[in-house]
# Entry
Amino acid sequence: MSKHLFPYEWRIKDGYPSKSIGDHGAKVFTTFSCGGGSSFGYKLAGYDVIAANDIDKQMRKVYLANHSPKHYIFGGVGDLLTGDLPKDVFDIDVLDGSPPCSVFSTTGLRDKAWGKNKKFREGQAEQVLDDLFFQFIDLADRIKPKIVIAENVKGMLVGDAKWYTREVVRRFNAIGYDCQVFLFNAARMGVPQKRERVFFMAAKTEYNLPRLKMTFNEPPIYFKQVSRPDAKPYNDLTELYMKYWHQAPQGGPVGKFQSIKKTKLNDVPFTINATRSHFHPLEPRDLNAHEETLIGSFPLDYKFGKVRPTYLIGMSVPPVMMAQVAHQVAMQWIMPLKERGIIK
# Structure
């Protein structure tokens, strides 16, 4: 029997067996939905994701190929503040979102990028990234869900970014939500990846719900458990990267590229970032798509289409990480609200 609440190796075709207490079926509207990592997590924990939103055309194609939401609303979150929305979006239980976070990343430009227009991929409209979280809160104020869950990078709790986090909490309070802030490590949540993320968990103040208690301590999953040497690699290493691979120790950076490391066989894999894969510890190659899919806890039958798995997984909340969070929210908030008749 598995020691993990949710399996990191799974397939869409096998369905979404809920691990939550009771058959709650709480309804979710997910914004900044990307390829649907969060959506998978909610589904695994027994939620019904009825609507999704993103501004990226390619991600829209991938999301729709792997999910079947009742509504998909294409555009920026700012468009959701004034445009027409489906009627049942105003009756959702959970508003979810992961506003783009590179301006707060500890590996990015941080304060040098604040207040500036940026787009992640060709074809996206330019947006001021540090405005998007506040637009997300404005959306919560417009549609008034029972609960709001937002995810972001660890950098929001570091240095000068702390003022931004305090402002996010203040604005949630101002629109009538009690908000808690948590820092979680996916490696302790049944995900084979060292991925630390900040979660903002807010519920309407009028419900007077108890403060969430969120503790995760599942057994670690080492790289040797997800290594798949028989899977097809992306490509052969260049002569320079081959040299770096031979020089780098397991767990160490690859040459001058501090963000790229040689994976350690007997340790939890490093965070998958959106730009480039890490290296295999025993074979001179990148991690392959099968390994990255397992490390990201994405379903093995996920249809990536023309999007490289490295990019999509690096941009996404690991499904099992979100499933763990959603499971706790279901037990501590959703079920009590159902018992009170607030959630049908």
